[in-house]
Design goal:
The protein is built from four helices and two strands. By secondary structure, it is mostly helical. The chain is flat.
């Protein structure tokens, strides 16, 4: 029964990573590629690690697997968002069939902040002035 679970988790994880790599080739711009790879690769790596935890059946390995899954789940979307924001700030070209750009005109190009959102430096400067 454990062998079947290992095969299921590892197989689905490998398929998710395969789909991420195909998506990397097929998507037309950086933003779509980033979305596909972040979601599918995180899922694929997590499922393969769960299969590894079932295979080794050791508390030490299982705790490490859970820690790795946690850190990948936390860090992958954050890093993807930062890469996407940096790409947007340097005006990386979007796909020509993109319908709407919800951030158009909202970024201050001099410091990379959104309009209408105060940074901590601006709040500190306002407190000092008051």
């Amino acid at each position: 029964m454990i062998d079947i679970l290992i095969m299921i988790f590892s197989g689905i994880g490998a398929i998710a990573i395969l789909l991420a790599s195909i998506g990397m080739l097929r998507m037309p711009d950086l933003y779509l590629r980033l979305s596909v790879t972040t979601k599918a690769a995180t899922l694929g790596v997590g499922l393969i690690l769960i299969g590894a935890a079932f295979y080794f059946q050791n508390v030490g390995v299982t705790s490490r697997v859970l820690a790795i899954i946690f850190f990948i789940t936390v860090t992958a979307p954050v890093s993807a968002q930062l890469i996407g924001r940096a790409a947007y700030l340097i005006k990386t070209k979007m796909w020509e069939h993109t319908v709407t750009d919800e951030l158009e005109g909202m970024y201050d190009s001099s410091n990379g902040s959104l309009h209408g959102i105060e940074t901590s430096d601006e709040k500190d400067a306002q407190i000092i002035q008051d």
